[in-house]
Design goal:
The complex is a heterodimer of chains A (115) and B (110).
Chain A (H helix, E strand, L loop, with lengths): L3 E4 L2 E4 L5 E7 L5 E8 L3 E8 L6 E2 L7 E6 L2 E6 L8 E8 L10 E2 L3 E5 L1
Parallel strand pairs in A: 2-11
Antiparallel strand pairs in A: 1-3, 3-8, 4-5, 4-9, 5-6, 7-8, 9-10, 9-11
Chain B lengths: L2 E3 L3 E5 L4 E8 L3 E9 L6 E6 L3 E5 L2 E6 L4 E6 L8 E9 L5 E3 L3 E6 L1
The chains are: A mainly beta (115), B mainly beta (110).
């Protein structure tokens, strides 16, 4: 079973619709992240959370919101989707390591198309 | 500011060696990661460097020079399955936040 799961895996929606992307993890990690990936732009951080109820903006948070109600779950919402939010979205997790060698573990991604 | 540069695309032949370079300009450098990403899939961890020098792990090695803001990923004995994008990511400060380069798409030909 995958340690980091995302639902849905693919979604087509229309401009103006509200949509929620879900991320769940069984790794027991306290830190979770949402990224989007666009061709030619690489992975960009949207929001991140270091603990339940802890929410921090990343570099491109406008138009998005998140919720971290439990350690294992981190949800990303698009309140009113627009076409330039069409992208591949990844959730990631990591553990707080004083040694700093711990990597981030990525979910399988959600492909979102906004028409 | 922060900037990470890597070549957009590279090609190589099966069995050969390829070096993928990454240069970075960032304050508070605290480690550099390399990830492999096959098309449409999640990035997966390859290597981590925080001190200068070479880290070897099987067919893959990664090098870091902090004074030059430079890293490379070396892939030996290339296989067709190594065709993928390779992402360089820098961590700043004592957080786990990563800044990613745009990735290098490697194509391995028979």
């Amino acid at each position: 079973d995958a340690d980091v799961t995302q639902t849905p895996r693919n979604r087509i929606t229309k401009t103006g619709k509200r949509i929620m992307l879900e991320c769940s993890q069984t790794k027991g990690h306290d830190r979770m992240y949402w990224y989007r990936q666009d061709p030619g732009l690489g992975l960009r951080l949207i929001y991140y959370s270091f603990d339940v109820k802890d929410i921090n903006k990343g570099e491109i948070s406008d138009g998005y919101s998140v919720s971290r109600q439990a350690q294992a779950k981190f949800s990303l919402s698009l309140e009113s989707a627009i076409p330039n939010q069409t992208a591949l979205y990844f959730c990631a997790t990591s553990v707080n390591s004083p040694r700093g060698r711990e990597t981030q573990y990525f979910g399988p991604g959600t492909r979102l198309l906004v028409l | 500011g922060q900037n990470i540069d890597q070549p957009t695309e590279m090609t190589a032949t099966e069995g050969a060696i390829v070096q993928i370079n990454c240069t970075y300009q960032t304050s508070g450098f605290n480690g550099l990661f390399w990830y492999q990403q096959h098309a449409g899939e999640a990035p997966t961890f390859l290597s981590y460097n925080v001190l200068d020098g070479l880290e070897e792990k099987g067919r893959f090695s990664s090098f870091l020079s902090r004074s030059k803001g430079y890293s490379y990923l070396l892939l030996k004995e290339l296989q067709m399955k190594d065709s993928a994008s390779y992402l360089c990511a820098v961590r700043r400060g004592n957080t786990d936040k990563l800044i990613f380069g745009t990735g290098t798409r490697l194509q391995v030909f028979p």
